[in-house]
Model the fold of this input.
Amino acid sequence: MAAQRQVWCRHPLAVSLLFYLLLHTMDVCARPANMSALKDKNPTGKDDNEILPPDHLNGVKMEMDGHLNKDFHQEVFLGKEMEEFEEDSEPRRNRKKLIEIFTKVDFNKDRSVSAKEMQRWIMEKTEEHFQEAVKENKLSFRAVDPDGDGHVTWDEYRVKFLASKGFNEKEVAEKIKNNEDLKVDEESKYRAKSQEVLESLKDRWFQADNPPADQLLNEQEFLSFLHPEHSRGMLKYMVKEIVRDLDQDGDKKLTLSEFISLPMGTVENQQAQDIDDDWVRERKKEFEEVIDANHDGIVTMDELEEYMDPMNEYNALNEAKQMIAVADENQNHNLELEEILKYSEYFTGSKLMDYARNVHEEF
Done:
């Protein structure tokens, strides 16, 4: 059963296919670095989103739990405009918006987008995600720093966290002040998860405390706690956590087999097998062509850190070349408007109809 839990955790689509069965046979499954299960069960969710590190980081290639970010291309192409391209939105409006984006990416106005122009655009959009995180962090920090002294202790954070899980804030604060046992494990199963999450967050909290360590987080350090991509030290910590979860032989490196490993004998139907096969192929391609920079069959922590650094200009150039290659039908290593409209689903997640109709007139 343990192996079965692991494979279905890696494939959320498969979970949806067998939800009823899993609901009655399994506990919610989550890695220590991933609090998504806990957040999904919170009836309000608002406080969690304010003070819990998010599982998903916009503009970062890998999720906190080691999964590849399936929306990465769209995030670094659209930036904060992602929400404007909804699946059910009006295709003609989306088409017009995409044409406007093309004209902005085409910096030299030669009606084609080069890799350098796309690189520049990717860096701009990534910076938008960074600024959005900074803006949200101000609200999050205010939520855990009610006295407004500009610093938050671990105990203050614990109080706010447990209050967001349904515990009485005054009672929790009093018990922590008096060093009393909180006894969270004696509460409901949902509340018992809180202690497990707190343990996983504690190390992360102190990692975010920049030297000289004072056991307090200011607003910038709290930003690194919530968004490790904003700090080189916390990015290293995030990489260390991912490698720890995937490394099977304890050498602190990843082989291809470790990166794509799946428990054997747990796939129960062909549709689930197809999902497994696609998942393995995608990770194998990313490992061999992108993450393993020197192509020696081993991914070190340094290589994974460079891969995950959203502000790495070399990575942005490689991403630009990959994005162009997907839609570059005339093989001129640039993108024309017709190509980007035809492959709109890749760039925006929204499929446009009659993509080439009157394109020159509208452009």
Observations:
- The chain has a mean pLDDT of 81.
- The two ends are 57 Å apart (CA to CA).
